[in-house]
Amino acid sequence: MADLKRDAVVIGSGPGGYVAGIRLGQLGLKAAVIEKEAPGGVCLNVGCIPSKALIYAAKTYDKMSHADEIGIKVGKPKVDMKAMQKWKGGVVKKLTGGVGQLVKANGGEILEGTGSIEKAGADGYAVVVDNGGKKQRVITKNVIIATGSRPIQIPGFEVDQKRVLDSTGALDLDEVPKRLVVIGGGYIGLELGMVYAKLGSKVTVVEMMDSVLAGIEPECVKVVARKLKKMGVEVMTQAKAKGWEEKDKRAVVTVEAKDGSEVKIDADKILLTVGRRPNSEGLGLEALGVKVERGYIQVDKQLKTNVPGIYAIGDVVGGMMLAHKASKEAEVVAEVIAGHKAEMDVRTIPAVVFTDPEIASTGMTEQEAKDAGRTVKVGKFPFAALGRALSVNDTDGFFKVVGDAESGEILGVHIVGNGASDLISEGALAIEMGAVLEDVSLTIHPHPTLGEGVMEAAAAAMGEAVHIVNK
After folding, report:
1. Which CATH superfamily is domain 351-461 in?
2. Among 51, 113, 127, 397, which lies 20 to 30 A Cα-Cα from 249?
3. Is residue 447 annotated as part of the catalytic site, yes or no?
4. pTM for the whole thing?
5. CA-to-CA distance for 324 and 50, rounded, in angstroms?
6. Catalytic residue of the set 66, 324, 447, 467
7. How far apart are alpha carbons 107 and 438 in whole angstroms?
8. What CATH architecture does domain 164-274 belong to?
9. Contacts of 232 (CB under 8 A, 6+ apart)
10. How far is 182 from 193, CA to CA, in rounded Å?
């Protein structure tokens, strides 16, 4: 097959890869995007989108189960997992189909197969696309590696998607397990654990650290921990999963508790969510001399590796493994290749945990600001004091704004509560533009809305909140 020639080749079509392909086209460059599975990568196919669909379905079921609290009598709802999975699949199909169309509309193309990189003399690089033994070479001066990450496995819990599931398997169940053991109390484990707890599973979370959701604003985590307890989810911290065995048509999981004792837990399914590792193998990086540390490709602020013409973005370069980070890096790297002056100079990248209630954070936590030598003033405002929160019967949580005591600069915004994922963008904009507390507190927010909480928390940091007693 004759070689193709392209201005740039992107390996991987996730939120980093496909955005890079689109942006390259917008900048007048001909790009080829290589994908071994479905366009959209993990996020669109087996991650962000399908998980949020199931989270929404579980929350709807939970709301219907408690509708009598607001005077609506509907009887006990029933869960049809097969129908739910069909609906979720439809959501995913619409989005992944759109990815291919957008790349094509911008002058690019998606090539099916796995990609590996070889030197091609003065021509730059040859990216070999292997589609089931059928190979195609694409000659280019620029290669963007956007191969993402995959779930980490631990000894004794090899994923078979029957008893032991990773997040992909957990998103594809056609029936609700009666008993579910979740190994790993990070955001993926708690998001999916809460889905199945709402749908009727008896859920146990096993976490090695002192707390679930390590690294997230501790005060926010406490709110979610209370909700887990209220839902009947058992959380074992400072605990280690040792192994499991099949017994009488069930799995028996052995856990070493924090006191050193061994605990046996019956389960129908075991969900393994202990983190993710970068997909940097099999690309030919070692032969090219690309610097890789612990699997992560090393890049600078322009997403350049140490080898000219080779770039990398997204999970494979480390840092926050978030789709929106990868997308931003994709835009930057496309502009760099096109000769524009661009680099990753963002001040903050917001992060969201889609538990119930949701947690969303951007910027520094209060402790991080103090550790950085900043004198801070903090404002908090509870959802329970918001008319909108009361009127939608969802009052758990609070808003927290961390400001510099001297300049008033907003250093961090943290929200735990209904709609936190949608509310956090105001905080990200405030930090990115260098806003001070007065900028947010003096901005008129519409009433009654949840967004008023950000305004009130900023005012509370200055001792000027109206709808709570200032401390």
Report:
1. FAD/NAD-linked reductase, C-terminal dimerisation domain (3.30.390.30)
2. 51
3. yes
4. 0.96
5. 16
6. 447
7. 46
8. 3-Layer(bba) Sandwich (3.50)
9. 197, 202, 203
10. 7
